[in-house]
Each structure stands twice: as structure tokens, then as C-alpha cells.
Amino acid sequence: MLLELANWLSTYFSALHLFQYITFRTIMAALTSLAVSLLLGPAVIRKLAALKAGQVVRSDGPQTHLSKAGTPTMGGAMILAAITVTTLLWADLHNRYVWVVLAVTLTFGVVGFYDDYKKLVLKDSRGLPARWKYFWQSVFGLGAALFLYHSATTLAETSLFVPLFKHVELPLGVGFIVIGYLMIVGFSNAVNLTDGLDGLAIMPSVLVAGALGIFAYLAGNAVFSQYLGIPSIPGAGELAIFCGALGGAGLGFLWFNTYPAQVFMGDVGALAIGAALGCIALIVRQEIVLLVMGGVFVIETASVMLQVASFKLTGKRIFRMAPLHHHFELKGWPEPRVIVRFWVISVVLVLIGLATLKVR
Q1: How far apart are CA 42 and CA 266, in angstroms?
Q2: Is the separation of the CB atoms in 254 and 75 below 8 Å?
Q3: Burial state string for 246-271 with b = 16 or more CB within 10 A and e = fewer than 16
């Protein structure tokens, strides 16, 4: 929106040519979404408290969580609002990738919102039944993958690239749709599983979004992508603006979500953020790198899968409780220690992911 206005006015004010630079608009998007989320935060928290949309705490979990009961949840709505407003303001609205990622984010957010609303406001402990949650996630995730596959104009857009190797490019064909579905739906649920402690999920999400923004900017620039040996995806650079918006909104949310949290993001935020990260990685052809940078989400999900499989097959549990962060809590780690150490691991993994840009 602002880009169109700046283009129109640049004839009279040459300084407005600055809006042509993706780097400038990315920075402004991050600052704008940060401001929006900080401004919305208090009002959203008050509204959620009035609706009595408070956290329900399991009695069989860590006893330290009992004090969290009643903390306003569904705060992810402020993240989605900040991302949407900011993206519409600063991104090139003629770019199809911007609309795909925004659509994925909002549709998955709607699924999460409905689940949260039923559980927390309507007091229906079942929420949205799991089969229907996965059904709608599958519909929206598969829809995005199909659109990206059929709208691809170059072979690179549907090929698998292996990090560390310059010339490993595997055409996926329709297999792209399968991988796209798994990345979007899988990461959506992975972030949701990680969202169990104050600030645990949002900070790694901000870090990964920032790194994906760098990949998007470089992939969208023909010169940089050729120099670095990464796939060239025309138009992908605009996703850096979305990543900036996600990062800024996430930091604004963390202001209220940091320990001890005033608000939790709920499924409305976790499902949407995870799906957005998966979709962006799919577009810039960095699925494998995302699995590395988002290693905390991957490990948390794997811990749940291993716990369930072990209990069903042997009747024994591998961890004291899954996801993994609860295991460390039950071992006696204070919650802030678990959170910060997982953040440190995320920083290291994101740096490793970024290193693949040059190590080829």
C-alpha cells in the first residue's frame, strides 16, 4: 500500500525512492509490527481477561504451572493483527508470494482461534476435535502447496536443494506438493507443541523468521543467489518484509509473554506462526535448512512421537513428560532456565543454518 503511494508521489519527492529498497521496508515493517503489538497488547489482555479466556492447567503436569491457571490466552491474535496490518502497509501487494504466506498464516490462525475459543470461552474441554483440526490444516496446507506448484515458472521453484552442495538440485515434480504439505502442516503443529512455557516458542520463531528473511532477500536477488549458489526465486525477496513483520510482532508479544507471562499465544498464534515459517521455507527452497534452524521445534515434536511410540510398544516412557521442556522441568530445572537454554540452542542452530549460505 505504502509502496504504491510512494511510487506515485516519487515524481514530486525523490526521497520516496527509498521505498523501492526491500531492506528499508523490512526494517520499517519490523518496527511497525513491534509498535502495533505493543499498542494492542494491554487492550487484548484486558479483553481476554473479560472473556475469561484463561489458561487451563493439567493437574498431572509440573506443579509450578498451577499458578498459571487463568492467565489470558489467545494472545496470538495480537501477533496476527500486527503482521497483517504491517504486511499490507509495507509489502508489494502485487507479489503472489506475499498473499500465499499471508493467507496460510490467517487460515491456520482461524483454525487455532476456533479451537481456543471453544475450549477457553465456551468451556468445551474438547475444543475443535483433533480430526477436524487436522482436516482443516490439511485443506489449507495442501491448497497452498498446490497453488505454489501450479504457479511455478522455473524448475528451481519445485526442486529440492541440499545445503552444503552447490549443484545438488533434485526435481520433485508432484512430490513438491507432498513436501509442501508436510512442511506447512508439520511446522504448524511443531510450534504448537513447543508453546508450553513463557516465551519458549516465540523467541525461536522470531530468530528463525529473521534468518528466513535473509534467505528470502538473497533468493530474490539474481546476483546474490548466483554468487552464493542458492536457488534464485524471482519475487521471493518481498517475503523479507513479511519476516520482518513476524519478527517485530513476535518481539512485541514477548514483552507481555516473558516470564512470568501476562498472556499466552494459544493455538491461534502457534499454529499460524508455524505454518508461516514452513510456507516461507518452502517458497525459498530451504526446507532442510529450516529443519536445522527450527531444531528446537523438531526436537520437541520428536520427543512427543518417541514418548507415545515407546509407551504403546513397551508400556514405558522415555521422558518424565513430553514435550521435552516438561521433562527438564520435572527434573528440577527452574522454568526460566529451561526457556533461556532453549533460546541459546535456537541461536546456535540459526547461525548454523545461516552458515550454509557460504559453506558450499
Answers
A1: 17
A2: no
A3: bbbbbbbbbebbeeebbbbbbbbbbb
* 232 close to 80: Cβ distance less than 8 angstroms: no
- How many CB atoms are located within 10 Å of the residue 215 CB? 31
User: CB-based contacts of 3: which residues, under 8 Å, 6+ apart?
Assistant: 19, 20, 25, 90, 91, 92, 93
Say which amino acid occupies 191: V
**283-319 b/e with 16+ CB inside 10 Å = b?**
bbbbbbbbbbbbbbbbbbbbbbeebeeeeeeeeeeeb
Cis before 163 (ω within 30): no
Q: 236 CB contacts (<8 Å, ≥6 apart)?
A: 97, 216, 219, 220, 283, 284
| Model confidence pLDDT, tens digit, residues 278-318 | 999 999 999 999 999 999 999 999 999 999 999 999 989 99
- Tens of pLDDT, residues 7-54: 777 777 777 778 889 999 999 999 999 999 999 999 999 999 888 766
- Reduced to 3 states, what is the DSSP secondary structure of residue 296? helix
**Joined grid coordinates for residue 114:** 476456533
Q: Is 163 exposed, middle or buried (0-12, 13-18, 19+ CB in 10 A)?
A: middle
**pLDDT tens, residue by residue, 168-208:** 789 999 999 999 999 999 999 999 999 989 999 999 999 99
User: pTM above 0.90?
Assistant: yes
Side chain identity, residue 204: P
d(CA 204, CA 347): 8
